[in-house]
Amino acid sequence: MIEIEALSKSIQGKCVLAPITLRFAPHRTTVIIGPSGCGKTTLLRLILGLSVPDRGRVSLQGEQLAATNAQRLRSQVGYVVQDGGLFPHLTARRNVELMAAYLRRPADQVHTRCAALAELVKLPLDRLERYPSQLSGGERQRVALMRALMLDPPVLLLDEPLAALDPLTRHALQTDLAQIFARLSKTVVLVTHDLHEAAYLGDEILLMRAGRVVQRGTLDDLLERPAEPFVTDFIRAQRADARLSATRSRLG
After folding, report:
1. 134 lies in which domain range?
2. DSSP characters for 217-239?
3. Domain of 187: which CATH number?
4. Is CB count within 10 Å lower at the N or C end of the chain?
5. Could you report the per-residue pLDDT of 160-171, keeping only the tens digit for each?
6. What are phi and psi of 54, to 5 degrees?
7. pTM of the predicted protein model
8. Does the residue 99 lie in any domain?
9. CB neighbours of residue 251 within 10 Å
10. pLDDT class for 242, splitting at 50, 70, 90?
């Protein structure tokens, strides 16, 4: 479980995240969506302890995040970024097994876990012996997901993991992610800019604007009971973008 109380952050005098209080329930997927610069990524970084808030607190699994326990609590959180964030000088396998090796987990257990994760994310085992530059974008993201899940953390954070992928690869990974989230039943917080993706993957949607939460609920809540005009404007813009993308596809 993730709890955030009166959390705020400013960068170079600009408010990036207004005081915000949130609770992410266990075993549910919450998708954070909103325009660029609304504070989505900042919120994830604060949850993970990669950025220090100006005020407020973050609690993971009932324990307040602090400098003294940040490294230990991070081992309970899997983190996937947009480009995968893989180390280019390491093979896919070594990227996946890196933290387990650092923690000196038994080698046979690590290899067994790696094989199980490869099956989970539908990555052929031979791809694990390749370097990131030798993998497709979709394969790199599957490796990044394996690395995030290696220590079997109860919490999984994903920051626009599919944004850089082509439509076909993105669709395939959306389908696989939905199945993985349902199978593992972890506390998942996923950031995206795509409302359709949010509706498909999330148990609930959290819409942000200018560092604050505008509305939280299901897609039906946003469509039928918008909290303010911005919600309707955001949905209308998403639909327009979808129509434009479809038109471009038809034109080749």
Report:
1. 87-152
2. E-HHHHHHS-SSHHHHHHHHHHH
3. 3.40.50.300
4. C
5. 999 878 888 999
6. -70, -40
7. 0.90
8. yes
9. 6
10. low
b/e sequence 177-195, b meaning 16+ C-beta within 10 Å? beebbeeeebbbbbbbbbb
Q: Is residue 195 domain-shared with residue 252, that is, in the same domain?
A: yes
* Ranges of H-type helices in 86-228: 92-102, 107-120, 137-149, 167-184, 195-201, 219-224
Residue positions counted in the chain: 252
Element (H, E) at 155: strand 155-159
Model confidence pLDDT, tens digit, residues 20-61: 999 998 999 999 999 988 999 999 999 999 999 999 999 998
Q: Measure the CA–CA gap between 37 and 234, rounded to whole angstroms.
A: 14
Q: How far apart are CA 225 and CA 222, in angstroms?
A: 6
Task: Return the structure tokens found at 203.
Answer: 């148990």
pLDDT for 245 beyond 60: no
User: Residue 137 is encoded by which pair of tokens?
Assistant: 């974008």
Q: How many domains does the chain have?
A: 2
* Residue 58 belongs to some domain of the structure: yes
Is 81 inside a domain boundary? no
Say if residue 28 is exposed, middle or buried (CB neighbours under 10 Å; 0-12, 13-18, 19+): middle
Predicted confidence at residue 24, as pLDDT, reads 93
Do 68 and 192 lie in one domain? The reply is yes
Tell me the C-alpha distance between 95 and 34, whole Å: 31
In a domain? residue 82: no
